[in-house]
Amino acid sequence: MIKRNKVIVMIFVSVFLLFNSGPSYAFLGWGKAKTTSEIMEQTKVLIEQKEYLKAIDQLEDVLEEEPDHADAMAFLGYCYFWTGDYRRAEFDLKQALRVDPNNVELIQRYVYTLHKLNRLDEAFGIVQELSVRTPNKKPLQDILTNIKQGQIEDYKF
């Protein structure tokens, strides 16, 4: 009887482990994310912990479900920037700017990414063009001034 109970317990434990062995965020106190906002919150924590590759995986999942999610595009660009992939960062930040063209922080980060790619002339043109269309021109004019004065380093991520 004792041997039979041990076998039953072992089978139960094996089945339990089998069904609970998928990816889990339990180490952070999370269950599986169900909504985009939950995934984005988890992603912010991963970014704060400098877990950029894990954050990239989650952000790509969000963009599969919601291709025009500006924050996911922006965070994806930030993550690629922090991993040193400036070309991919530039691509994703540019996509985010298409959805959210008046986001000054996003513009600053895009300009800084272009700076890292040695494309300051292009950055200047983009900011100049955006400043014509943007209601709050002051922050963009500050960016233009800093580009002209070679102080673009002030806009680090």
Q: Can you describe what's shown?
A:
With 157 residues, the chain is an all-alpha fold. The chain folds into 2 domains: 36-100, Tetratricopeptide repeat domain (Serine Threonine Protein Phosphatase 5, Tetratricopeptide repeat, Alpha Horseshoe); 102-157, no CATH class. The protein is 70% helix and 0% strand. It has 8 helices and no strands. The chain has helices spanning 2-19, 36-48, 52-65, 70-82, 86-99, 104-116, 120-133, 138-148. α3 runs antiparallel to α4 and α5 (86-99) packs antiparallel against α6. The longest helix is centred in the first third of the chain and has 18 residues, at 2-19. It is elongated and about 85 Å long. The N and C termini lie far apart (65 Å). The relative contact order is 0.08.
What are the key terms here?
157 residues; mainly alpha; Serine Threonine Protein Phosphatase 5, Tetratricopeptide repeat; 2 domains; 8 helices; elongated
